[in-house]
Design a protein that fits this description.
By secondary structure, the chain is mainly α. The protein has a single domain (11-34, 49-254), classed as Ferritin, CATH 1.20.1260. Helix content is 75%, strand content 0%. The protein is built from ten helices and no strands. It has helices at 13-20, 23-34, 52-80, 86-112, 118-125, 128-142, 146-169, 174-204, 208-233, 241-254. The protein is globular and about 55 Å long. It starts with 12 loop residues before the first helix and ends in a 5-residue tail after the last helix.
Amino acid sequence: MSVGPVEPHVLATEDFLEEVHSFEFWFQAVEGYLSDRPYGRTPGLESPVLSEGDREALVTTLCNYCVGETMALEGASGMIGFAPNRQQKIFLATQAVDEARHLEVLLHRLQELGVEDAEAEIGRRANRSLLTFRDRLGRLVESKDWEAALFAQNVILECMEFTVFQTHAQTADPVTREVLEGIVKDERRHMGFGENDLGRRLAHAPHMRTRLAEIRKELDPLVLGTFEETLEELDTPRDARPELGRSYLAAVARLGFGS
């Protein structure tokens, strides 16, 4: 049961988890940047007319964001069935809602850009490395391997999306920037869930770190390959591209899962 408006960080561990994994906490967290923002953007906010080349690049990029958000939606919802306790099931339910909303706002942005059949465009433009990542995450979820699936989903995938969206938002048109900035706020919460849960488990079973390192060794090249293709589409200068990879690696390290 939620303890209400008390500052969560002053609570005992079990009460803290009860609070931050609750729907009530989720409502409070998202209200500030979802209220009065249909489809993740301020009504009336206009974007400059894009050149055909810029539009094509943005459509391809958003199509791949849809692949990532669909992956996260299916991963979070699939993990609910084997989450170890009620608190984790509730949090994953809020995450699934977040991911579904992200997918919806990205599809709406594609529609604004003139994409009539989003599913066909997503299938045609999907990044190969991202599709391989999707398949690997799907197998971990299907195997009901909690630690491995949580690591791939809420650490690796969420760090990847957080890094890409935050970087893209810096140069995006006003509408796309506002949509991405709202999504990034959710990714922080999802990453925190993965970090906190796995951190507690590693404290009692440090040998698990070796296993997670092997999973990371397999997934990191797929993340970096996704970055490379995304930055190519966005026409990011080649000398600036390594920064995105370093930002991702630093984010994973900050969560306690460095090399």
